[in-house]
Amino acid sequence: MEWICVPLLLFSGIHLGFTQFNGFNCDPNYHSRFPGERDISVYCGVQTITLKINLCPVLYSGYTDADLALNGRHGDVQCRGFINNNTFPTAVLFSISLSTLESCGNTLEVSTSQSINAYGNTSMVQIGNISGYIDTPDPPTVISYLPGLVYKFSCSYPLEYLLNNSQLASSSAAISVKDNNGTFLSTLSLVLYNDSTFSQLISIPTSGLSLKTRVFAAVKATNLDRRWNVLMDHCYTTPSGNPNDGIRYDLFFGCYKDPQTTVFENGKSQMGRFAFEVFRFVKHKNQKMSTVFLHCITKLCRVDDCAILIPICGKRRRRDTADEHVVSGSSSGDAVITAGPIITRSDESPTNNSQLSGSSQHLNALTSALISGVVVLGVTCLGLFILSLRLLRKPNPSSLTGVWNPSFR
To answer: Which domains are present in the chain?
Structure first.
């Protein structure tokens, strides 16, 4: 096995120094060794898992890129990697689609446990773990002088997220974040609509929505493998875009549901849908408009397991009043989007509250006076009518004449 050194080349004034071995970018000073853990990189995406293996130690061990395959599937071309020779060192890339990850022998295990999340609530949470390995084939002999190479990998996806964002473009909020290793958060969005068909995005006028206006909200998953469903665990509102605001109002959580909130679909597809009536926060009593921000803690559940995560509700469960107002800080794994602000009007006309109050008092006083006058007039007329009847029926003594009848005794 011979290493060939290529002299330093000059292109357009830029010095490019590299060493090649059999046409691959390898440096014998760094790669004349057997593979180690640092030779594999794992990128856990929302649609694919990408594995990157340093090819140089593989070549040093006596193998080629064609000898590497997922989970021992060496006879299946789709389970092999492809070479990227535009990097240093040369790498072999494997791309695993989450929608067909089992086709090359990778495994998905979903564990379910009851735990307390970052917001102090106890709930059932699932964690999805995808794992597998890349290896070299065993020789058809009794012994071998070549080492057997095995690269193990795994991606762990926590399946509970807080949807929140401090900014709202137009009428809805959608997540736009950099993919982190092992999170499906970038596939989720929280959108507001103004109709029950969930087809027309809500348009909030500058003057705000009228109180008790019905708003329809949906938590949707986009470009997510169909093995997962969306399960809204807890949706609540705050007067600011901060999900940890000390003032909040719960729309639903577990078996608790606000009377003006209706949940249409949850845990049965890749969309959760509900509706609620807009209100104002009392802290905004001195303002003409009130702002309401919507937050949802959302889980992704495997389709077959969603039923065990949905709470079984009989009698409405009472909640500790302290839970209505206290939210602990979010954990480092939580990324946030918010739908909002939803702006509501405190009054229904340009007239301010003091004018409405004065007009109301004036109308009430006038109405009371009119009613009192009608009652007094009615009583007076009734009295005069009764008196006139009595005067008409009473006989006049001076007009009575006649002869005494002695037989009448």
So the answer is: 20-161 (2.60.40.3210), 175-313+333-345 (2.60.40.4100)
The first and second tokens of residue 289, run together, are 């408009």
Burial label, 61 (beta-carbon count in 10 A; 0-12, 13-18, 19+):
middle
Identify the H or E element spanning 371.
Answer: helix 353-393
pTM above 0.70, yes or no: no
Q: Angle at Cα 91 formed by Cα 150 and Cα 87, nearest 5°? A: 160
218, 198 in Cβ contact below 8 A?
yes
Would you state the structure tokens that stand for residue 174, as one six-digit string?
């959608």
Cα 362 from chain centre = 49
Determine phi and psi for 391, rounding to 5 degrees. Answer: -65, -35
Nearest alpha carbon to residue 218 among 397, 72, 339: 339
Other CB atoms within 10 A of residue 369 CB = 10
- What is the signed CA dihedral for 263, 266, 269, 271, rounded to 10 degrees? 60
Strands 289-302 and 228-238: antiparallel
- CA-based diameter of the chain, in Å? 169
At 364 the three-state DSSP class reads helix
Contact 118, 329 (CB under 8 A): yes
Over the stretch 127-184, which tens digit does the pLDDT of each residue have? Answer: 888 999 999 988 888 887 888 888 888 998 888 877 753 222 222 222 222 233 577 8
> Residue 338: CA atoms inside 13 Å, Cβ hemisphere, count?
21
Q: Which two tokens stand for residue 256?
A: 């608790």
